[in-house]
Design a protein that fits this description.
Oligomer: single chain
Number of helices: 3
Helix content: 55-70%
InterPro entries: NepR
Order of helices and strands: HHH
Radius of gyration: 19 Å
Protein name: Anti-sigma factor NepR domain-containing protein
Shape: elongated
Strand content: under 5%
């Protein structure tokens, strides 16, 4: 099936990344990777565990 015939998400996945998409992805990673690597605070983990037990 040619790319032009694909619909919805499959069509978007089949399309190559645009320069803007690549730039945005790299910029977001530069800004947020360090934050995402930080450990989750103990207080937040306790809240999550308490909610699971409900």
């Amino acid at each position: 099936m040619p790319n032009a015939v694909l619909r919805g998400r499959a069509y978007h996945r089949a399309m190559p990344d645009t320069a803007f998409d690549i730039w945005l992805r790299r910029g977001l990673r530069t800004m947020y990777d360090e934050v995402a690597r930080e450990p989750i605070p103990d207080d937040l983990l306790r809240l999550i565990e308490a909610d699971r037990e409900k």
